Amino acid sequence: MTTTDTDIAATRNITKTRNRQAIIRHLATHGNVTKRQLQLDLQLSLPTITGNIRALEHDGIIAPGPLTDSTGGRKSQSYRFNPSHRTAIGVTMHRNTLRLCAIDLQGRPIATLSRTLPYANTNAYYQRMGSAINDFAAETEKAHGPVLGVSFAIPGAISADGTVITFNDSTGATGVTIDTIAQSVRYPRQLIREAAAIAMTETLHDAAISDAICLYLNRRPSGALIMNGRLHRGPNLCDGAIEHMTLIPGGKPCHCGRRGCMAAYCSPENLPEDYESIPGFFSVLEQGETHHRERMNDWLDHVALAIANVRCVICADVVIGGEAALYLDHDNIADLQRRVTALSVFGTDHFTLRLSRSDENSGAIGAAMQFTDPYMDALCGWDTGPHPSSPAPTRTKIDTATMGV
């Protein structure tokens, strides 16, 4: 079998692409690097390095870094990955608030917007929201790179093809499609469960996360699953949604219409007595009131049972977030871990349980990562070969002090 000119050209193109990806990958994970260091680390010729650097700089993918000291006396030019040459926008919609967040390719917020906009399942609402998103995207593109797309983080559940909200009782948006929601948005768009979006940001805050069950104890509890440092969604886009796992057969009614769900028992709404708020409950609890301590113990027992049940299937670490987590201290977390350990079967008692580091922007940030992660995978060649166990080296840890603009 003879080698044709087409075969030779194809091989050269593959080699060229791999060299380009190797350089981008190295700069994205190592920071400022000189041509000489790239040559040594990647075992590529200097002309190959120089040609690729020139092309990547022209495309805005990399940028000059600081001059570095050289053994020869003359300082060398370093180069760095430019994470803002592409951006993405995440959106969260709640009863009264619309929140937008633009991120760069490292998952770092570069612009945020929070606006009071009461939700209504009407074209007028979606058009007003779309106008705000388009204006926000235009401003983002003026200051940074093109917007890859807009992703909406939705409380509740979405369809297997990611196009329809299949359950959302918090806003009444059940049955609404992405085409309706984003009818005025001029960019590619996607849906994601809000819990899954928040879980995506856990890897930004903690590069050590490999496998983790993320449990968000809001008034409507939810969950998500991280495997090998990445969100695991499964074919139905619902992996980790443990809130409707049956905890007590035939038990309390749940907002989903079934009985005995984890959500019915682990919601912090179970803690306050009549006419008492959740903050008020924890305020009285701190004073050592007996009945409040009993209610807290019952609630912790149910949360521990839910975690232990999930860990029988997925023996992973645990991250606790949501509204309830705002009131849990180190002693509460240690107590919860002891309860989970007491319920664990053989060989599943070695794990960490900690509080989430998520904040009010995390849902939007994680949603936007639906666009930046695949782009980075393709750019660095991670979609055609082994991916690092944690994506953290390609990103910068979120500094919450710089999140507002």
From TrEMBL:
InterPro entries assigned to the protein according to its UniProt record, in alphabetical order: ATPase_NBD, ROK, WH-like_DNA-bd_sf, WH_DNA-bd_sf
SUPFAM superfamilies assigned to the protein according to its UniProt record, in alphabetical order: Actin-like ATPase domain, Winged helix' DNA-binding domain
Record region (Disordered): 386-405
Pfam families: ROK
Highest rank taxon of the organism: Bacteria
UniProt record similarity statement: Belongs to the ROK (NagC/XylR) family.
Stated name of the protein: ROK family protein
Organism: Bifidobacterium bifidum LMG 13195
